[in-house]
Amino acid sequence: MIRLADVTYRYPRATVPALDGLSFEVSTGQFCAVIGANGAGKTTLCSALAGFVPQFYRGTITGSIEVAGLNVVESPLADIAGTVGLVFSNPFNQITGARFTVRDEIAFGLENMAVPVAEMEPRIEEIMRFAGLEGLADRSPFALSGGQQQRLAIASVLVMRPKVVVLDEPTSQLDPVGAKEVFSVLRSLATTAETTVFMAEQKLEWVAAFADRVLVLHQGKLVADGPPGEVLASPDLGRYGLQPTRYTQVARAAQLAGLRSADTPLPVTLEQAVEFFN
Amino acid sequence: MSQSFSLYIPTNSGMHRLHPLTKLALVFLCLVLGLFLPGVWLSYATFALIIIPSALWGGVLPRLLSALFKTALPIALSLFLIQGLFWPGGTPILHLGPLSFKEEGLYFSIQRTGRFIMIIGSFLLLTFTTRPDELMLALNRHGIPNSITYIILSTMQIIPRFQAKANTILDAQRSRGLETEGNVLVRIRALLPLIQPLLLGSIVDIDERAIALEVRAFGRKGPRTSLLTLHDTPAQRIARWLMLLAAVAVIAWGIYLWLAPRFIA
Q1: What is the pTM assigned to this prediction?
Q2: Per-residue DSSP letters for B2-13?
């Protein structure tokens, strides 16, 4: 579903590549999270999967990127739009301003794809329930809170039913409850709708709880790739500017203090921590 | 205004319920009347006889007059002072020490102020009573490309968007001790540190908004559908044609009045 082969990308006038020799594959229906310190290349990777790198940002790219059967380096952005959905971190700038109410804002993408109005309405209602936007249909998108705007941005992309959803730190403006809701929505999307979810995220506890797989980027290179339990408990995480989850930190301290066996696998989620200390 | 990022004032008046193109045709006729015919007072007459009653019907007259006063007054004052006092040659009608107001300069200032009031008044009437998305849709349905109508829509939103961004930056700067209130000099000095973040931030915003539009298939070619519905009536369609014909007639008459003396000479 997502296939990168030896991708290296440089922004215009940059001397150092933002993505450096990336190769990996993500299969259909997988929830894949990419983590890394600031400047590791997460945003660039997300933009590349949706075709905006290099088509919008220019620069030079080598290697190949295939998403849902499309060569996103060369396919027109208008063709990619219906297949790959992109949500980024600033919710305010994702509101197009072309529509006056929340309902119409969600409809905007469907209108551009010429979806019949009769089909549009139930899809909008369904996605509003899914994203927790009930009761806000007639409000101005600009009158919503940051968290509501982010949910609107996600709903506006999901309503187009893309095969792959790429999200660049979509929970940065959300409170913990809102962030958990977004992760739950994406998890069920991957499980039930067989949509591939690719998400750059800093909240490692949620990544540990919801993702199937974690990639670690460091200075544009892929330095770790595996299940959350393995990648997030790795002692190498600190080298890449990342801090393990608090469960892993406490468990590691317990091992160092001799309270728990050093052979027991470190927990990355609350449930695993409970099991570890029991 | 800040909640919707447009100047639209949502009420349910008859003016609001008119088809966007009917209001656009009315504004076009006002502009043509004020700009194509000679004379000093026609712009004022257009303003008084068309724009004011329409704004009253739309329930937006106080807001329109207030906005107009704030924008037109500084321009009118500077026009009267500069053109009145420094008109080359001309007939002096009022002496102020070594300076004198010239009749021709005042005549010119009255005419230009009238045109300015009429142009801004028409624009405000349209934006106060028309939802930007409905105007965009109406224009799309009449063959104007999406990209062009989006530029029109963005133009209608640019003032409130800039205002909101500037306020956020000013708040941040005030919280760090920047003095932004006081006499004119203090206010001008406070503007300097505002310009750079405002412009750079706006460029980033434009980039991100362009991406948001592309993600939503805005660049897709071919037919589109719309959840919005526009209400139109045969009477409005006839009125639009009549206003357009009147505008064309006024333009032709204005060109004739402009050319006739040259041919006679």
Answers
A1: 0.84
A2: TTTTS-------
